[in-house]
């Protein structure tokens, strides 16, 4: 009961005043059914007898100045059942629209909040968890609403029948209903078992599903190393568990139903015995009363089933609400009223340090200036903090201490939307969507300038690749499309960022999977942007940053050296050492290559 009220408030929040209209409709259905059924009593008895129900009907007929006739009653029966049917149809339509809109609204709100959430917060969330919320939890919330409504509906119908039995015979009804309540209390244990099993089933299903998805998504690795045997053992263990729980659940549910049915038959037989054998009363009244009790029992069973389903999905409401609350608390402030960045100004990172939520210190008191239209390069060992800097320039990462400025304006006072609109970012992990090459490059732009697209494909050095495809730029890439090589992925990603016409272009290991010839060609093509766009380039292969105006050398989150390329080469510091190391490796590779050739 407490839950029912608690969740009424909850669903009111979701669907607003419409919940009252649903309630009114259900009550109307209940009344139409109640009156329609009651009208069978005079039909059975062929007239009005001396019970409260008959008297009430007679009273209404008198008030309407109508005389009792068999045909008139039949007509009324038809009328009320047609009325009930109409209400039910209307209810189904109204409820359907509400449920559909609810699912649309919840998904939209949720997605909106996900996209608005702070990046660091999202980093902490498992992708599967977010996905599960969108697919399963939201469906469960709507399920909970639907089962909740069923509980309310059956309760109202049940109450109508209880009212009718009371009108027909207060004593007998009270006795039977008391038996019903006692029985319900006795059955509580069975119900608890059923509830527990249904909770178990949903937990086990979650586990089974999670491990199955993981296995399927890592199929390549599993098959290549024959590890699928190990994981399939675990999957099958969960599968068997799930099957067993589902069996237990269905058996307990039918057990509970059968017990109820047997008890109802006992009551009906008892009633017949009491009325006919002991009191020698009119059999039509007892048949009618038995029918009403059957209806009450039916509604009770339905309430029970619906309530059980409601309990199973009710947890989703809590999970979903908690997630929404968390998302609200972690909303990123876009500061739309803030200063619009002037791209003729420099970006300044002053004394920035970054400690990730897991305690990892990625940057330590770093100072960087990215002058407008300059090409600034970040180099350094793996894990030294380069990508962290790139993320900070976009504003998705905020330093734990120190400040980031754009043209003298602190990022906190900057309109982040206006900034990001003009940022092109080839992230270290290449981003390929399950879509056509064209959509991958234009991000589903509806007014694509074909010539511009062509020239960008050229600049990204993928002309040959694209022209070699059957559908050219309409070829679908990604999971369900063409699987392309690492280097091709990177070039498509570069094309996307060039298409964007960004003012600031960040290239984080944008060409790391390419052979040096293709890489060189791309950077040659990019030269035209030099002095036009501000560029932040991160690269391990140092030959790619020869054109940089300024270079920062990182080591373990600190800047250990900075300056122009030639200057750093002359200095014989960290940078020079890196260059020499790479040269040495290249020479070794060439020598090894020529040795193999000679041997061959
Ligand atoms: N989300 C994160 N949570 C915790 N630690 C992180 C996170 N992202 C990066 N780090 C850590 O911060 C340090 C710097 O990472 P970063 O990605 O900036 O390195 P990088 O210089 O780009 O390295 P690479 O050349 O390998 O790409 C690393 O030690 C890394 O493990
Ligand atoms: Mg990196």
Outline the structure in words.
This protein is an alpha/beta fold. The chain has 2 domains: 2-329, ABC transporter transmembrane region fold; 347-563, Rossmann fold (3-Layer(aba) Sandwich), CATH 3.40.50. It has 21 helices and 10 strands. It has helices at residues 2-15, 18-38, 40-45, 52-63, 70-116, 119-124, 127-168, 170-186, 188-217, 219-224, 228-278, 283-329, 386-394, 416-420, 437-442, 450-459, 463-467, 486-499, 516-526, 565-571, 574-599; strands at 347-355, 361-370, 375-380, 401-406, 409-410, 423-426, 504-508, 534-538, 550-555, 558-563. A 6-stranded mixed β-sheet has the order 6-7-8-3-9-10, with helices on both faces. Strands 2-1-4-5 form a 4-stranded antiparallel β-sheet, with helices on one face. Helix 2 packs antiparallel against helix 5. The protein starts with a helix and ends with a helix. The protein binds adenosine-5'-triphosphate and magnesium ion (MG).
């Amino acid at each position: 009961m407490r839950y029912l009220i608690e969740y009424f408030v909850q669903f009111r929040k979701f669907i607003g005043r419409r919940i009252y209209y649903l309630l009114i409709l259900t009550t109307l259905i209940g009344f139409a059914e109640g009156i329609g059924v009651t009208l069978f009593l005079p039909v059975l008895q062929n007239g009005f007898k001396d019970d409260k129900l008959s008297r009430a009907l007679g009273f209404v007929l008198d008030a309407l100045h109508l005389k009792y006739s068999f045909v008139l009653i039949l007509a009324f029966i038809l009328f009320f059942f047609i009325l009930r049917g109409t209400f039910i149809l209307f209810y189904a339509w109204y409820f359907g629209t509400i449920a559909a809109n609810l699912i649309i609204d919840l998904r939209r709100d949720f997605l909106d909040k996900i996209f608005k959430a702070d990046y660091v917060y999202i980093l902490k969330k498992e992708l599967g968890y977010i996905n599960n919320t969108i697919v399963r939890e939201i469906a469960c919330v709507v399920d909970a609403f639907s089962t909740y409504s069923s509980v309310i509906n059956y309760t109202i119908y049940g109450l109508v029948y209880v009212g009718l039995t009371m009108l027909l015979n207060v004593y007998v009804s009270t006795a039977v209903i008391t038996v019903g309540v006692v029985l319900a209390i006795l059955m509580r244990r069975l119900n608890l078992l059923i509830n527990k099993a249904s909770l178990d089933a949903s937990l086990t299903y979650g586990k089974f599903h999670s491990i199955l998805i993981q296995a399927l998504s890592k199929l390549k690795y599993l098959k290549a190393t024959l590890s699928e045997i190990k994981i399939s053992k675990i999957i099958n263990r969960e599968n068997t568990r799930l099957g067993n729980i589902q069996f237990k659940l269905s058996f307990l549910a039918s057990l509970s139903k059968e017990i109820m049915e047997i008890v109802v038959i006992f009551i009906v037989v008892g009633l017949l015995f009491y009325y006919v054998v002991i009191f020698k009363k009119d059999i039509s009244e007892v048949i009618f009363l038995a029918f009403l009790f059957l209806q009450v029992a039916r509604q009770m069973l339905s309430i029970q089933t619906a309530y059980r389903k409601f309990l199973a999905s009710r947890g989703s409401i809590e999970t979903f609400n908690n997630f929404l609350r968390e998302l609200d608390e972690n909303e990123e402030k876009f500061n739309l009223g803030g200063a619009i960045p002037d791209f003729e100004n420099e970006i300044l990172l002053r004394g920035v340090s970054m400690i990730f939520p897991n305690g990892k210190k990625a940057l330590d008191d770093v100072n960087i200036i990215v002058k407008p239209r300059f090409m600034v390069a970040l180099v350094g060992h793996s894990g030294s903090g380069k990508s962290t800097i790139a993320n900070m320039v976009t504003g998705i990462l905020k330093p734990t201490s120190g400040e980031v400025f754009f043209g003298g304006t602190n990022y906190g006072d900057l309109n982040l939307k206006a900034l990001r609109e003009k940022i092109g970012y080839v992230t270290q992990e290449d981003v390929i969507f399950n879509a056509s090459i064209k959509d991958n490059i234009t991000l589903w732009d509806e007014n694509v300038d074909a010539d511009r697209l062509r020239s960008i494909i050229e600049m990204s050095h993928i002309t040959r690749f694209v022209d070699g495809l059957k559908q050219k730029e309409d070829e679908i890439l990604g999971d369900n499309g063409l699987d392309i090589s690492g280097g091709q992925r990177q070039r498509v990603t570069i094309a996307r960022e060039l298409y964007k016409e960004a003012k600031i272009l960040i290239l984080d290991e944008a060409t790391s999977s390419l052979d040096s010839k293709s890489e060189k060609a791309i950077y040659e093509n990019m030269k035209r942007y030099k002095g036009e766009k501000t560029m932040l380039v991160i690269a391990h292969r140092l030959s790619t940053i020869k054109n940089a105006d300024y270079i920062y050398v990182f080591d373990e989150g600190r800047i250990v050296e900075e300056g122009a390329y030639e200057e750093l080469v002359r200095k014989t510091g960290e940078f020079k050492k890196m260059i020499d190391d790479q040269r040495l490796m290249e020479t070794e590779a060439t020598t090894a290559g020529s040795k193999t050739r000679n041997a061959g």
